[in-house]
Design goal:
By secondary structure, this protein is of the alpha+beta class. Helix content is 47%, strand content 18%.
């Protein structure tokens, strides 16, 4: 390999890796609207069915869900960011009436990781009162976005001074 090709490769590879790292960092922790299975064509009945499927797949009873919304955090035993995320989400849930935080350990549950397409932990789903996923966050969630979404679900208005 001549020295010019080696120099170009030596500069291009770290630049590409840096660009990919910045893109990953910008995407991590952002709240994305979730697609409810069956909600498009089937309407509200399909959305309720999607909620039942979600609750059943998570092996949660209806009693574990919040009456207004539920923050479902997928964690693993070896996740270093999961305990802090759990504390933050528990605190956010405590700020709202009818909102609960539930943690699901995926360490030995590859079937759940596959079913909910969890590629990293923590991953958080925000479920509405019917158990239908309304939003998803991959990585440590940005709490402002979670609060904004919960405000929309609960009908609560925030006044900033």
């Amino acid at each position: 390999m001549d020295w010019l090709a080696a120099l170009i490769a030596g500069l291009a590879l770290p630049a590409a890796a840096t660009a990919l790292g910045f893109a990953w960092k910008a995407r991590t922790g952002r709240l994305h609207a979730a697609r409810a299975a069956g909600a498009g064509a089937a309407g509200a009945a399909g959305a309720a069915g999607a909620g039942d499927e979600t609750v059943e797949a998570l092996e949660l009873g209806r009693a574990a869900l919040g009456p207004v919304a539920t923050l479902v955090q997928f964690s693993t035993k070896y996740c270093s960011r999961c305990p802090a995320t759990a504390r933050q989400l528990t605190g956010v849930a405590a700020e709202y009436d009818g909102v609960r935080h539930v943690e699901v350990d995926l360490t030995h549950r590859g079937d759940l990781a596959e079913r909910f397409r969890v590629l990293q932990t923590p991953t958080t789903l925000i479920l509405d009162a019917h158990g239908v996923p309304t939003a998803r966050v991959g990585g440590v969630p940005r709490l402002g976005a979670v609060r904004d979404h919960l405000d929309a679900l609960t009908g609560r208005t925030s006044v900033t001074s």
